[in-house]
Design brief:
Two copies of one chain form a homodimer. Chain A has 423 residues and is α/β, with parallel strands linked by helices. Chain A has 13 helices and 13 strands.
Chain lengths: 423, 423
């Protein structure tokens, strides 16, 4: 163990999840516990806020609010979509980051995010080494997309999957109550990887239950096949529920969401008519198959439904944050905390250090053999893989019938450097 | 107490809710308990199925599945949108219903539904009296819209309101994570009454929290006012979350959802571009205020989210079903079971008999004094009225990380009458 006395900085980036704050809480509480870290700072709005020297101290927040972070959805520290350039092209940014770290004696940097954020944590680590600034930069994975390579799964995925599977079960019951044929079209997040859409399969126990078909971005989408599928379900069950990823594309590589967009109307007010894949499929079904169509777009509900988070996911997210601090204190840098599933009968995951450069900017998709031959559902292997990740429910603090979530004051500390404006 | 030995028939109608089956369960279990009822039948798909003599027996279902109905969303007995004509115009239908009741010795008819269904229960009661068929017809209210007159509230509303309030809190946290301005537009069910949309206000504790504005069908919608509201929230909080009812209309009585529809595009595939009020508002904001807009349409999620049902609502729904049987056995007919709030400090509701004719086809809207002067939010009176209805959480039976809901076999009994086809 190489001790390095100093302060730490934790920040969040990319799209929120139900448990990204559980990871932050793990970082913060472990940093408080260890004797190696003095002040626990947070960067407001990820790397973008850090570049602006927008920093607040967790030591100033009420411990009860920090404890509540464990169950609070969305990025409580603020988020950004800022992507650092390569060190060669954007050295100014890196120099600024190290200057800020130095000014506040930040020796530990914990960055919670997806592929892009792991890239940031990696480059910051490299640059610190290059300029001889002693820094421990550790990435903490999060994404509902579950698309990080090497590791078993990402924190955030299990909770979103649990909400999708449960809602799909409920929507499926709702979709079958009438005596006339109906079609329900459910759009689920996932631009390139269909993991979350695949999790809707966990709603299904019997053949007649929703979802009847699952369309993934890993497979080309065919309107002819879709047409045949929907008609077949209506014939058998008098209703059809389909789940699909926002990122499905046709054979020629065109996003379904963009079909017809070249021709989108401008209405009486001069408003552009917007819409996604959901509307394209709805429109297809209304015109060709069945007039009674409902669309369900899970939108930001799916990634923020902390009231129905998976306890397994929640605990793992906390553990990843906690382990990031331990690994940092042990002297590691340029690494990500990854979850590795044990080869045992009962589900169990341990953390392991992964090289950030192996994770950054790479995507894990659903393997072809976990998708059925027809390309319109997932296999039991996929279901068995996802099932343990959605087990258990989180205990919430309820107030007035709704969950009480954390509320941080986020009072920024005094800036020590010149003003800087992130472009 | 006028004893009337015979069988009973329970059926469901209209849009599903999270607790409509809790009411059915109350009817069924109470009918089993009382010594007055022999067989407990269900009409498949409400009055439409009854006209087809599509009936199954709850005595044949597993008691455990009946118990699970208590927490199962959507209409487990099936539903319909069939509206009976007046007795003068549609006597054939009524004659048919009484013939079926007579053939199966059905002496109790419990109909669970909204305004239209109460109208049906009422007319069937009247017709039975007219032709001298002894029948006890009792209505059990349900609707997430909370728009039945006289009674304090309807079963189904509290659970939908709890889900909306909780999700709004979660979506609100999600909507504020970025460092650039964003607008989130949330569409909530309610064609003419804004009760459910109003319940989004229960997400808000502090001024800066979502929802920033609530637009109800009770007030005319103005794009100018909307524009001003959204800009003001962005200025103050760097983000804006609005909740609105699907049924909002402009000053001239036109549904916002229909604006621009005369001009809707037909895309490259010949598909009609569909969309509701959500898309119209999104389009307005993108063109005029801010490019970063998210839409959230709660669709059927809001009425089927039994995993987050209100315990209060759930227990009341069960009680309404149970009391319907007791009132029927006592000799009442042509009545609805209504919930009346006691004038006490702590919330408590009792059931009371309401004349069906006073309820049928009438709507209860939010009173003007419960909407703020500007017409863009609700008052604390509205919040205080809704709050007790969303209290408590239901205990679910979990299997594989998702709730286990009831599954009835619904084996139809042998028909005794000639075939009949509902038009």
């Amino acid at each position: 163990m190489t001790s390095l006395k100093g302060n730490c900085l934790v920040a969040q980036s990319g799209g929120p999840t139900s448990v990204i704050n559980a990871s932050a809480c793990g970082v913060i509480q472990e940093a408080f516990r260890t004797g190696e870290i003095n002040e626990v700072y947070a960067g407001l709005n990820g790397i973008a806020g850090i570049l602006n020297e927008e920093i607040f101290s967790l030591n100033e927040e009420h411990p009860e609010e920090i404890e509540l972070l464990k169950v609070t959805p969305a990025s409580a520290l603020g988020s950004c979509r800022y992507k650092l350039k390569s060190i060669e092209e954007g050295e100014k940014d890196y120099r600024r980051i190290i200057d800020i770290f130095e000014a506040h004696n930040i020796r530990y940097f914990f960055y919670i995010g997806g592929n892009d954020s792991m890239d940031t944590a990696h480059k910051v680590s490299l640059y610190a080494q290059k300029v001889g600034y002693e820094l421990r930069s550790i990435g903490v994975p999060k994404t509902i997309d579950n698309d990080l390579p090497i590791i078993d799964h990402t924190p955030g995925f299990g909770s979103a999957a649990k909400f999708i599977a449960t809602s799909m079960k409920e929507i499926g019951l709702d979709a079958r109550v009438y005596d006339y044929p109906t079609v329900t079209i459910c759009e689920i997040m996932g631009r390139n990887a269909g993991w979350l859409t695949a999790s809707s399969a966990l709603a299904k126990e019997f053949e007649d239950q929703a979802p009847h078909y699952i369309y993934l971005p890993e497979m080309p989408f065919s309107f002819e096949k879709f047409d045949k599928d929907v008609r077949s379900a209506i014939e058998k069950y008098n209703h059809c529920v389909v789940a699909f990823s926002e990122g499905i594309k046709t054979e020629d590589g065109k996003y379904v969401s963009e079909i017809g967009s070249e021709n989108k109307a401008v209405d009486a007010f001069g408003h552009v008519q917007l819409g996604g894949a959901c509307e394209v499929l709805e429109s297809y079904v209304v015109r060709n198959i069945c007039k009674k169509v409902r669309t369900v777009n899970f939108s930001t509900i799916q990634r923020s439904a902390a009231h129905w988070a998976s306890l397994t996911d929640n605990e793992e997210a906390y553990m990843c944050g906690q382990m990031a601090v331990r690994y940092g204190v042990e002297g590691h840098t340029g690494k990500m905390v990854g979850m590795i599933r044990e080869k045992s009968k009962d589900y169990h995951c341990n953390t392991q250090l992964i090289d950030l450069e192996d994770v950054a900017n790479r995507e894990k998709k659903i393997p072809r053999e976990w998708i059925n031959e027809e390309g319109n559902f997932v296999t039991t292997e996929a279901v068995d893989y996802i099932k343990p990740l959605i087990m258990g429910e989180v205990k919430l603090r309820m107030e007035n019938g709704v969950p009480r979530y954390a509320r941080l004051s986020k009072k920024l500390i005094a800036k020590k450097l010149d003003v800087w404006k992130v472009k």
